[in-house]
Structure formats: C-alpha cells, structure tokens
Request: fold
Amino acid sequence: MTAIQPRAADAFVRKPDAQYAVVLVYGPDTGLVSERAKALVAVSVDDAADPFQMVKLDGDDIAADPARLADEAFTVPLFGGRRAVWVRAGGRNLVPAVEPLLANPPTDCRVVIEGGDWKKSAPLVGLMERARAGAVLACYGDEAANIGQIIAEETAAAGLAIAPEAREALLGLLGGDRLASRAEVRKLTLYAHGAGRIELSDVEAVVGDASLLATDEIIDAAFSGRTDALDVTLAKAWSEEVNPSVLAGATLRHAMLLHRLRGEVDKGRPAASVVEGAQLHFRRKAGIGAQLAALTADRLERIVADLASTVLEARRNTALGEALTSRALMRIALTTKPRRR
Reply:
C-alpha cells in the first residue's frame, strides 16, 4: 500500500520519497488538494517558473491521447535539472495514460495528478495504491489541529498575536476547504494590521459575516424546529443565489455530526462534554446541545438518508434545487418543532 496516512501527509509533501514517480492528490477538500499538488510540484523541480522543468497538462487532453503523458515525463529538460508534470484531472479516465508510467517509472521527473472528490474505489485511486512507484494523498476537511496550524502560520507571518477567545471563535468558523480557510485568516490579519493582536471583535467583524454563518443560521433554524425563521433565512439565501446543493450538503454534514455526537452520548458520555469537545463556533454550542437532546440516533439516521437523497437530486436537477432543498429543510424543522403542551 502506498496510501500516505493523514498524519504523514505534510511531511511527505515537504520531502516526497524519490521512489514515487507518480503522486495522486485527491479528495473533497479541493483547496487542500490544490495546495498540496502545487507544493509537490515546487519541491520536485529546481525552478517551478521554468517552463522546461514544469509542465501543466489538462487531464481530459491526456485521456484523449494517453501516450502524451509518458512522452512528457521522459522528455529531457533543455537546460538540465529536475522535471515535473502537473496534471489536473477532468472527467475522463486517466488509467490508460498512467499505467505505463507506473510499470516503467521515469527517474528524473515526477508526475503530480490533481484529482477530484473521488471515492476510494475509483479506478485511478486503486491503480495508484497498488503500484510501487505511485503514492496517494487523500485530502479531507481540516481538523482542529490543522486549522490551528494555519492560524499560527498566517498570524506569525503577519507579525500578530491572537487572543485565546479569538482563536477559539476562528477555529469554529474555518475548515472544509484549506484555501478558503487560509484566505479568511489572511483577510483577518490585514484587518488587524498594526494592532499587534487579533481580538474576538476582529474575528466577528471580518470572518463573522462570512456565508458560513448564514448557512449555519439556516441549518440551526431547521434543526431547532423554528419554521418561521427557516422561511425567512431560506428566502434570503435564495435571493443571494446560494447554491441549493451546497446548502443541502452543509445540512447533511451537520446531520452526520449530530449523529456522531449522539452516538457518544448514547455510549454514556455527558452531552455537555460531547458538545464542548466538538469544534463548533462558541455561539452555536448551546443550540446544538438542544438539538442533540431532541433527536435520537434513529431519527438522525432517517434525516441523513433523506438529505443524502436531496443532495443527489439537487445536483441532478438544478432547476428544482431550491424547491428540493427547501422541502428537505422544512421536513427537518417540522419533525423537530417543539410540541405544544
């Protein structure tokens, strides 16, 4: 197996083993995929700005002409030096182009493939994991430790300290996409430039207005049974052209989070401890605690199944996306709405 474990991924990107002539980077965190692919290319050549050392190729073009990838990988740089080929995968199958390189890997060139949000069972993933000359990095949403590292890196680069409560609030707002998280922190450091320290008020002023909070407002209205608030927030979302399938996907992730937390509670852990240990914005913890208390594991399983179906249908039929997502959210709100005594 040449699947690089998450805990070893950053070290691998900084110094990849020479035996891996082909590296596949893929996963749902497209920002992290792009960041790691770019970093791998940078450490694989002497000068990433030299067009003779680094070549970018479109995956669909390679799929149409599989032999071209090997031709590029075995090309000798005009002025010497190490070489890299950066392939951004499209929707077409790259296996026929990659197989010859894995069987006969180049020695002076590394091929870095930037993949999409693929399943582990995808043909190229399986092929790469079985090959001695191939390595695979799966990129998932950043965990608290990774987000903390991003905050530390960016604030240090800007010469700023950050207050503990500001850092906690920021941890709850970031994640899911590496580049988006880094961009938010950089925006925050620009806002606080010259102040010496980032305070909670700075986070609320800059990051607190991000669309993530608007999405959370919709989701919390649904899972708290506040149908009136849900109507208002959904109307605002649609007027601002929020993508229905993205909103449905965010709601699905929230339901899965609640299901995981519910499982911890059902194992005997105190609900307050479970919620406190989750990486959530501090303002949401009380509301999520109430949601957790109101929903059983069975009900959450049904909600997860319903939302998974909604996400799929909203992507397949974009014209009905708003209606499908609105109905799914309202079903949640109606099932969680407090009953009158």
Observations:
- The first strand starts at residue 22 and ends at 26.
- The chain has a mean pLDDT of 84.
- Residues 144-206 form a domain with the Helicase, Ruva Protein; domain 3 fold (CATH 1.10.8.60).
- The chain has three domains: 6-138, 144-206, 211-336.
